[in-house]
């Protein structure tokens, strides 16, 4: 498939993609805050700068975009064009995610991954229950 955008248009589009404060991350933050949990955002002192850090619970939540982090769902399908670029890029993201989670666990942190496809409105009740179970486990 041929790219229909010019180089400058593609560059502008790629620049507009956010790494923080994405819609899925904001939904998870709103859920956690609404349930009364307080957290620190993107703590650079921890491996991988987790999206939500709950220091008193020694727990972190990472919110991953399905496409960028290689989730095997409909949203996370790999592109069919420019495979020489996209396949290694997404593979590196997945490898980095695994390394970060292992490093956090070695430091005694509990890690939960929430995928973008789990933050759609129809699945928010289930996600809320999952977050509560995760954060309340071993919290004392």
From TrEMBL:
Annotated Gene3D superfamilies: VSR Endonuclease
Leading EC class: hydrolase
Pfam families: Vsr
GO biological process, one term: mismatch repair
Single Gene Ontology MF annotation: endonuclease activity
Annotated keywords: DNA damage, DNA repair, Endonuclease, Hydrolase, Nuclease
SUPFAM superfamilies: Restriction endonuclease-like
Catalytic activity, EC: 3.1.-.-
InterPro entries hit by this protein: DNA_mismatch_endonuc_vsr (IPR004603), Restrct_endonuc-II-like (IPR011335)
Top-level division of the source organism's lineage: Bacteria
Leader sequence residues: none
Similarity section: Belongs to the vsr family.
NCBIfam families (UniProt xref): vsr
Its job: May nick specific sequences that contain T:G mispairs resulting from m5C-deamination.
Protein's UniProt name: Very short patch repair endonuclease
Organism encoding this protein: Ramlibacter agri
């Amino acid at each position: 498939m041929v790219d229909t955008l010019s180089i400058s248009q593609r560059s502008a589009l790629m620049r507009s993609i956010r790494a923080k404060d994405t819609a899925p991350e904001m939904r998870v933050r709103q859920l956690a805050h609404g349930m009364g949990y307080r957290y620190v955002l993107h703590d650079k002192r921890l491996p991988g700068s987790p999206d939500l850090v709950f220091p008193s619970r020694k727990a972190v939540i990472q919110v991953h975009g399905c496409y960028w982090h290689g989730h095997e769902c409909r949203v996370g399908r790999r592109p069919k064009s420019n495979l020489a670029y996209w396949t290694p890029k997404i593979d590196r993201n997945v490898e980095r995610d695994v390394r970060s989670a292992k490093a956090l666990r070695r430091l005694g942190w509990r890690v939960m991954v929430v995928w973008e496809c789990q933050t759609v409105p129809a699945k928010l009740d289930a996600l809320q229950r999952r977050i509560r179970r995760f954060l309340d486990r071993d919290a004392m």
